[in-house]
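$ fold --in a.seq
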Amino acid sequence: MFVGRRAELDEFHRVLTGNKPRLVRLYGRRRVGKTELLTRLLQAHPGLYLNVDEAEYEVQRRTLASQVASQAGHEARFYADWDGFLDDLEMTNTRLVVIDEFQNLIRTGHGLLGRLQARWDSKWKSAGPSLVLSGSSVGMMQRLTQAPRAPLFGRITDNMHLRPLAYHEARDLYPGLPEEERVRRYATFGGTPFYHDLSIDRSLDDALWEALLRPNAPLLNEPEDLLRSEFQDASRPNSILREIGLGAHALHDLESRVGVQHGGLSQHLVFLEHDMDLVLHEEPVLGKKRLGHYVLPDPILSVLLPDDIRAAQCN
């Protein structure tokens, strides 16, 4: 069920109804609802929707050729190189191209970003389709533009970071439930739409069994899965989240329990808070900022990270 995202859809409508093509980056952590948002976007602004698998680049090119052909109504073309792919998009005369899971092309694209940069600069920025590049690897999507030598540095026209649903949006997932029960569901599953998919049309007890308690439950390894999508070595961020979940809320306690010197967690904490929405630094209404503390805003992670549920399943 799709709910909320009115502000994001309004922003998409604003940028896509202008006179010039736009190059939009949409990013956010896994399962936060990017694909559902893009599906709704394409209902209002028809265009091509391309989903990129994690595969070798030759396989990706064949898959993309098939997707373009099926939506444009022509036979699939062979792409000898990435210029062939961009030529095919151009020949469809579509005004909007959405590429979902774009980070998979970054990993294996073999020159795609350079060719896309050249095509955008030479033609598409003034007379081409608008592009929406969506990805679940937050860090990889950010690196597209972080430095002057980054492939799309200075070219992204609009930047959208999709965050978990607020309560006033998520409550609409449960139209038949009293408000108290809606609050209980949000306090249990937070603002990640996929988690609520496991709760809709079930009692809360059944939802918890389905999501967390049964053998091979889909959310049991959620913390590790989220971190593996961002870090080659997830030991440090996993330690940070785990120790916060175990009660290390003050920075000095957290640094001590992770085993680093003062300031040694700064880079990871900034990324986990501002980019992945996995950590929240709460500051006192009155008092000094340094008296603030770190918490896990996602209730599912706050349950899973101390390993209580997973340990219980092993016993």
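$ fold --in b.seq
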Amino acid sequence: MSDIGQILKEARIEKGYTLDDLQQITKIQKRYLIAIEEEDFAALPGDFYVKAFIRQYAETVDLNYDDFADELNEKLGQKEPLPIEEVTSRLAERQAKDDDKPDRFGHLLKYIPTVIIVVVVAAIIGTIYVVARGNHNKNSQQIENNTEKVAVSTDETSQKKKVAKKKAAKKKAAKDKATAKEKEQKIVSTSVQGSRFVYDLTNAPATNVLQLKVQGRAAWNAVTADGVQIWQGTLAPGATKEVKLPENTKKIMLNLGNSKGTEIEINGKKFDFLKEDANKSVRTIVINVASKDKKAADKPAEASSSSSTTTSQNAD
């Protein structure tokens, strides 16, 4: 037995009709068309309308109703189809009744845009009123406040500005001083082992300059940068030697033959290395350099556990 609803549906789709299109053409309500395609004939008003609607559906999609009339009668439990004249008459009567029924929902839909417009306009007017009212009260309050401020002494206002300006300048000066102190070049003693003294140099420039000056008697000295000897020689009393180290040097080693008679400056700042031990004449000084861009330098492998002493750089 064939599926009548599926045959009709496939024919509709082949014609390119949607259910809404078919409803407009046949004037059969969409819910009845869906019931026909699903063969839910109980959802239709009666067997007569089942046959009438299916006949009209079939003719609209270019199918011959007679091809499956017998099968439809069998499904409906009827042996003979109703006369065409009676079917046509009842169908026309049914459609006339449907057309005469007022579409209450559609009638209401026509008024929705108008209602929305009225509500929006009312809301806009209400908002404008509230804002205008608020601005009026605000302006009135401002006028009263301005009237009171006129009575305030101009000298008092000027004095407050001066005090505020003085506080801001003092705060800025303190901040600048703290910043400058943080950026100040410093040398920190990290270990002492016999005649070997190890230091950390922080906030140093990328290129460091050493100056050695000998007093009293001649002294032999040597300067090494990252394991490469830059200079070595004997300085006569009163002689001065300036040594410019390679850029980004990480480790400086100084060998002093007469440390008691030797003065050292690093980047123009006096290096008071005798504070760690003023009695040793021959000594080796190792300086681990941390530039201004790098706050921490690698700790030397030869560093031993001893108390750390900080030696701040002072200007000459």
